[in-house]
Structures are given as C-alpha cells and as structure tokens.
C-alpha cells in the first residue's frame, strides 16, 4: 500500500517568471543543460533571493 505524502512534504517554493529569467540570464543558451520530460532545463547562475 503506497504511503500518502504529508501536506508539509508537498510544499514547494514559487518563483515569479522574472526571478527565473534573471537567475538564468534570460534563459541563455549558455545556461541550458538539456531537455527533460517537461521541457528545457537551465542552470541558475549565482542568484540570491
């Protein structure tokens, strides 16, 4: 029988589009790591919130 995740385990941070764009240098191809099942994957460059 699968375990049900606790609600607190499901919490994820939410980032605005502009925050993600800044952290990836506007989705620069230099920061693109590859493609995943949900689309492109980018590395984040030294970004402090």
Question: How would a textbook summarize the main sheet?
Answer: 2 strands, antiparallel
- Beta-strand percentage? 15-25%
Domain count: 1
Terminal Cα span: 40 Å
In DSSP terms (H or I, runs of 4 or more residues), the helix count works out at 1
Shape by Cα distribution: extended
Strand order of the largest sheet: 1-2
Description:
This protein is an alpha+beta fold. The chain has one domain. Helix content is 14%, strand content 18%. The protein has one helix at residues 17-23; strands at 32-36, 39-42. Strand 1 (32-36) and strand 2 (39-42) form a beta hairpin. The mean pLDDT is 83.
Features of the shown structure:
single chain; about 50 residues; alpha+beta; two-stranded antiparallel sheet; 2 strands
Summarize the structure.
By secondary structure, the chain is an alpha+beta fold. It has one helix and two strands.
Write the layout of secondary structure elements.
Layout: H1 17-23, E1 32-36, E2 39-42
Antiparallel strand pairs: 1-2
